[in-house]
Amino acid sequence: MEHTDVIIIGAGPAGLFAGFYVGMRGLTFRFLDPLPEPGGQLAALYPEKYIYDVAGFPKVYAKDLVRGLVEQVAPFNPIYSLGERAETLERVDGLFRVTTSAGNTYTAKAVIIAAGVGAFEPRRLGAPGERELEGKGVYYAVKTKAEFQGKRVLIVGGGDSAVDWALNLLDTAKEITLIHRRPQFRAHEASVKELLQAHEEGKLRVLTPYEVRRIEGDTRVERAVIFHNQTQEEVPLEVDAVLILAGYLTKLGPLANWGLELEKNRIKVDTTMATSLPGVYACGDIVSYPGKLPLIVLGFGEAAIAANHAAAYANPSLKVNPGHSSEKAEEKAPA
Ligand SMILES: Cc1cc2nc3c(=O)[nH]c(=O)nc-3n(C[C@H](O)[C@H](O)[C@H](O)COP(=O)(O)OP(=O)(O)OC[C@H]3O[C@@H](n4cnc5c(N)ncnc54)[C@H](O)[C@@H]3O)c2cc1C
Fold first, then answer.
1. Ligand 1, from 85, 296, 305: best to mutate by most atoms within 8 Å of Cβ?
2. Minimum-distance ligand 1 atom for the alpha carbon of 298
3. Which residue, judged by its Cα, is nearest atom 2 of ligand 1?
4. 188, containing H or E segment
5. Which of 8, 15, 122, 261 is most solvent-facing, going by the fewest CB within 10 Å?
6. What number is the average pLDDT over the span 128-145?
7. In order of start, what are the domains of the chain with their CATH numbers?
8. 113-137 as b/e, with b when 16 or more CB fall inside 10 Å?
């Protein structure tokens, strides 16, 4: 059984920044995350998209923001237990005990839950061939644009991700076809206008109301058969990649059974980011309080509150207020 002062469940932006503050307070901490790398949604879903609403960054690539957060927390020697999902949380002899999907048990004096939208997985279409060719030409996110270099790509979806990626891959893919099951798109009006303009100019092809019938290929995707969902007419498309951007299914996962007070599938917190379990704090997309917005910048603020209260809980000799980092630079912060 391994012990740190604090366990942080989830290494997305909120969890990473909470780690920074816990480290600033001189405490040890461990991140748990089922994903293979830190960064949460930013790393897993949209590493190469620009984010425009992080204070101080007019625009920043999601992956660069994650890199900065990882660098910022690094001097405090975080322990990353990646590929491990927190399964159970209990209190034993005054300590929190967390077991994980990897069969490990960790203990801590306080816990911060920064598990975002919980366990998220892409919404699959259920089309024949989809599962078999996953990772072999069937994608649910764009990790790097280079994966689509010179490829004939079928994009499936009608929301912002599908429309944005159709436009964004114009300079990378050889050929782009976007299909959506309805004639109306859910994406931002301006992006849809740009998409339809690109279609008019012959830069890409937009087909509605079309869906995927099946995906075919021996070892990799070779073609997709799509169909008009009113006439049922089938159209075979020779493609190298099928990018399915039909949204994500989110489940709270194991957290739902930890005895926390929940509100609409989120963890209810008070103004100190305390949950209903003393010693367990939460921040980021997972929390619910009046006025909450699921934004990265709010997650950062909540992380600062959660981490400083968790630090004072784990070590009662600490004050909650951390003081100013600028005044502690030489003592605590990275050189
Ligand atoms: C396409 C897209 C674009 C976006 N653009 C913007 C934008 O421009 N501006 C903005 O402010 N926001 C944007 N967002 C929202 C933003 O990404 C989220 O608000 C942010 O990621 C929330 O951070 P978080 O740390 O709370 O959670 P997450 O980023 O979801 O990270 C939570 C982490 O917890 C882990 N986890 C879950 N369950 C467990 C468990 N049981 N045990 C251990 N770990 C667990 C997950 O694997 C994940 O890594 C966008 C989201 C998407 C999908």
1. 296
2. 11
3. 46
4. none
5. 261
6. 92
7. 2-120+248-332 (3.50.50.60), 124-244 (3.50.50.60)
8. bbbbbbebebeebebebbeebbeeb
